[in-house]
Protein 1
Amino acid sequence: MRGFLRGEFKQQVGATFLRQVIGLALAIGSSAIIARWLGREGKGIVALASLLPGMLALFLSAGIGAANVYFAGSRRLSVASLSANSMAFAVLGSIAGTVIVVVMAVSGGLRRLVPGVPIELVLVGMLSLPLSLVSNYFRTILTGLRRIIPLHIVGVCLDGTLLLLTFL
């Protein structure tokens, strides 16, 4: 038990806590800006428009993240190989997600799925799908390599980017 909170473990726990606090602050800031500029109804519309790309990213990730953690951690595949495969799957997932949304938009299913949300806003929200897939895949590679501090730095950068995009 002696030395339990020393060295690398202590740094990683501290970095995780700090990342969560910073992420929470950035999320609250982004939410407050959206609510202030758009009001309650506008904030709800933005939430619905971003829900579809988020769910598609979840479904189209196809378990690649878990595989990346396993193969990076076991060193059975090189980081270069994992990165190349991740990029290929991110491109394929983005294309599949775009096709799904276009088919839903043309068939009218999109209006039933996200009622009251302009289709153009959903399409703009879909621009986040490739970034979401790529960032998730590369964060899982960092997780498998046990590179916790760089993992959190990437997470904070993504949260900061979302806050900056809120101003656009």
Protein 2
Amino acid sequence: MKKNFGTYIVMVTFIALSAMILLGCEQDADIEVPQSTPKLVVTCFISPEDSLITVRLDKSRALFSNTNEPFDPANATVAISNGITEVTVPYNQDQLLFEIDQASAFTIVPGANYKLKCSYPGLPLLLSQCTVPAERLTEIKLALDSSNAFEYLLKMNFQDLPGIKNYYRTFAFYNYTDTNYFGLGDTTYTEPMASDDNNLLNDVNNDGGQYSTVFTYLPKGKGPDTLQAVILTCSEEYYKFHYSLFTYGYDNPFSEASPIYSNIVNGLGVFAAYRKAEKKIAY
């Protein structure tokens, strides 16, 4: 399982090496391997600025198992609670996820604590909780550098909210209009901008300080174009989970695998929160 992936890699390697060594021996040997059971795997991020609450649910596979029992999320029950009111999140068969509308059914409030509960026949009851950041950063400054015709730079600057521990994540998108080659006229496209880092920031040792992120993109389309910058003020769980993904080491076979962060009881995955702000500029 992902949470202890480094340990399991060591164990699998040990078993493989042991098998190679034992090929030249006449004496049999029994090697015990760790036992595990399938668990629910959940991904849910909540925000007051989103219109929907969405929950994705899956099932892990037992370690060293040659079988994989079928899993139908429609048979699961997902509930979210603010400590006073609990609502069941219905399953959307078309989207293959659970979702509920904030405006009519259940509202996420800044600064509040929420609990998530997921159940499935034959699997342990999954539990988690997180607290929505009470404040969000809204002051974003953008500067465009178009001096290089083949690569434009968008610099995002912002000042940390002072006096509290903060975590941030930044994004940028390029919206442009171009001719649709299927004869449907002009079409608007949205593409994420590239960045040299993982865009995860915290204010450790720089409380109230200035921060910046630089994004790059190749201009295309007919124009006018719109550049969209997004900044998330994240809960600690959101930050730790995504930081563990970025440092996992997928591209380096010689690096030691690090555990994927999880704040789930009796399961795997993440339940976290964020506040969202964005700014657009046209050119």
Protein 3
Amino acid sequence: MLRWLSALISLDLSPDPFPIGKGRFPTLFAPILATLGLVAIACSSSTSGDRGATATANATTGVYLALGDSFAAGKGASSADLTSYVALVRGGYEEHIRHSVQLTSLAVPGNNTQDLIDKQLPAALDVARTGDVRLITLTIGGNDLNIIQSDPNVGACIIDVNDPKCPVANILVGTEQRLDQILSALHSAAPKATIVIEDYPDLFSGSGHPFETPAKVAFGLLNDVIDRVAKRNDVLIADPRAAFVGRSLELTHIHDTPPDFHPNDAGHRLIADAFLKALGGPSN
């Protein structure tokens, strides 16, 4: 994410319309601000390589496989093992089915759809083919927009995400193809597993930032892709978007220093609720 900071600072946004913490815009939301979608921010991490919650329950029956980016890895939660959405989904799912499951999390902060194919999917398919996988959850796609940092037309996105010069729409064509590949492969390897993919909530909503409206557009474009692919592949959709409307200050770490739009414990709880609702199980 550091590579985005210089591109963001080069934009003439003085005077600072949103002075939170130190500096104009923290590294964590550089990619999304640059694309006006804030999508990649929420999904990548400024910390190095620590993965999300991974635990093994006693007397387990079946496997819960979690894949994705920093959302799925538990970024922003006070404890990836206890308060991340993956940990909460596991607890709710176990309550629903009345037995324990083994959690295997392969999620990595900062991963995009190609990273998932290259780094997470091979191990996931091995688990799916050799284990009794009952549930697979995914949060992935936001970091695909990182590629915009090398595009000379990034400035067009600051004005209007739907501007033909803005490369977001073209980038998402590739995202859609890779999501199809991922979900198709998981279905083939684990045909009896329930698969649920997340729509990204708008983590800018209610922040008062001048990029709030463009960010909503960019999130919408990405989520449209996710929804289309999910329906084609008979995959359930976890949709926490309504719960986040107008609540960025309450449900993220925007007040931290440096500011961070990853969901806090309350945000992770609402994301978990969306997954559990999709599964037909209990939510908080």
Protein 4
Amino acid sequence: MIVTVRNPWDRSHHERGDARSDAIRPFGAWSDVRLVTAARASYHAESRLSAPPFLINVAPMAEPMDAPSATITRWWRRLHGLPGGRLVFSWMIGRMAPYTGSMGARVVDLEPGHAIWTLRDRRPVRNHLRSVHAVALVNLAEVASGTAMLAGLPAGTRGIVRGISIEYLRKARGTLTAECRCSPPAVTQDTDFPVTADVRNAAGEIVARAVVTWRLSPRS
């Protein structure tokens, strides 16, 4: 991936004819990561608004992502310990899957075969009963499943969701936490592999349980 990082409120580089802040650099450059996190920290120190004062435009590199496990794990390890790093990682996942990014979920923890995500209870994700919408719960469970699975895929294996079933156990209100644990097997042929993701409320009660079936295939 490559990333363009630009602060639209900073006009100093235009005044001095310096276009460096608009340069496109590899997203792996630590300078860009620090710029993103520093900009966010600086902004929140000066304002209570929620929107960050910088733009992040992520575009795919010319080469395909042949090792999603290694890529996702590498970026998590680089970002999660930095101020705002988990938020930036969540944005990255949201850019990879824009519909998933639209609900505003945030990653809490990630390791191969294990992921935890949270979702705040707010109006855009609610239904007419003032609880979190059923489809938002599916989305939250799916992203927990997806990141746990992709982070744990053996080298040379790819995965895609083949089916999802979900059971709603109670109304979902307040901040929700989705967790998935799985142990992806070594794959030599197309294999359907189901994993479970639980969504809990702040009291630790399970409000929804999803079973996500992944089709795992060896890369040709």
